[in-house]
Write a structure and sequence with these properties.
CATH topology of the largest domain: UDP-N-acetylmuramoyl-L-alanine:D-glutamate ligase
Number of strands: 18
GO biological process, one term: metabolite repair
Shape: elongated
EC number: 4.2.1.136, 5.1.99.6
Oligomer: single chain
Number of domains: 2
Protein name: Bifunctional NAD(P)H-hydrate repair enzyme
Radius of gyration: 25 Å
Pfam family, one: YjeF_N
InterPro entries: Carbohydrate_kinase_pred_CS, CARKD, Nnr, Ribokinase-like, YjeF_N_dom, YjeF_N_dom_sf
CATH superfamily of the largest domain: Ribokinase
Helix content: 25-40%
Structural class: alpha/beta
Number of helices: 15
Amino acid sequence: MIPIAGTAVLTAAQMRAAEEKAIAAGTGVDTLMQRAGAGVADAVRRLAGVNEVLVLCGPGNNGGDGYVAAARLHAAGPSVRVAASAEPRTPAAIAARALWTGAVEPLATAAPAPVVVDALFGTGLSRALDTDVSTALNRFVSHANLAIAVDLPSGIATDDGALLGDLPAFHVTLALGAAKPAHLLQPSAVHCGAVRLLPIGVTTDSDVRVLSRPDLPAPAIDAHKFTRGMVAVIRGRMAGAAQLAAQAAMHAGAGYVEILGATIPGAPHALVRRRCDDSALADPRIGAVLIGPGLGRDDAARALLDQALATDRPLVIDGDALHLVTPERLHGRPAETILTPHAGEFAALFAASDTDKLTAARAAATRANATIVFKGPDTVIAAADGRAVLSPAASSWLSTAGSGDVLAGAIAAMLAGGGTPLDAAAAGVWLHGEAARRLGPAFIADDLAEALTGARA
């Protein structure tokens, strides 16, 4: 049972392929089920203590995992009961059922327990749960002090995070073999609770991974302000937004930050002020240009955006600027580009999509030939080559004015410091979330920008 940070994320089809590859190499289905059930049993025993455990088993292999777990838990001493929605139907599940020597109660009439383990349906479900199963599951979870899901809470679509009915929220989900998109995408992620990985001995290769703490070493002994990264922030109509982004870049670790255009009173003395003209943007020492926070959407804003797009410097585009550009125009840029849209800005730039957030972000990244940071409670970071990073939910207190400006500044600092666009975006997202975690409740964006220093440390 290990944290999922930095691990691969597999779709249902990819997970099946990984298991089939292991089977072809000589690892039987029964062996995989024994490993999964043993891992579940060990995790439940650690989490449940001496409390009675009710294991809910379905007819497929997820239910088989539940039978194995129940048998192992019983052998280890805790009080265990099993309730089933139907008889097992797969050969491996039937064999696992034979390991459980106790009674199997009907799901509809079983009594609740302090600890409930959902092994009804796992990865690959594509239809809503039957009403009687959904009703029973909600009843068990509502009466439990600890609710644990095996692989995925029953009733969740694996690949897009959709809820297939009225589902309860679990405290812990034990991901078998690999994390799945539904563990990180909303609305399903909030129903999973804390997600922990149970390795089952299969190879899990993927171009999608879970966000993890980045490697952010201290500057080299011979570092100077320009080797640490120079960020140029273009000021638009709302000077405060650009200034907030600039301060975030400074606190995230950039060695030199300048704001192109007038500042407002109270700006740090370390923030360099320059006019926004072609000569300023042509400075070869600039590691990243940031445009968009508080830019406006008038002709003056369009002119500033034209200047930014004409540079050969890496570019971070946020806020208003996302309403003034097209994917086709971005696709031909010779320099690296990172876009940081929330849902409304994403729809304005790429049009509304009925696909899941991961698929939409990857398609948008390819279309614009840019790295996309599709913000929200389930932030998705996607590169044009198909790689992606999924971020676990961060603090809901980030829903405050200016937090997006802070994120854009942090990403610009990471990009200017020499990171690849995908790694820079991921590092910025991680720092942003960590700063929010450290602050606790009811902070403002100014606090968030300053807290990046502690997060970076």
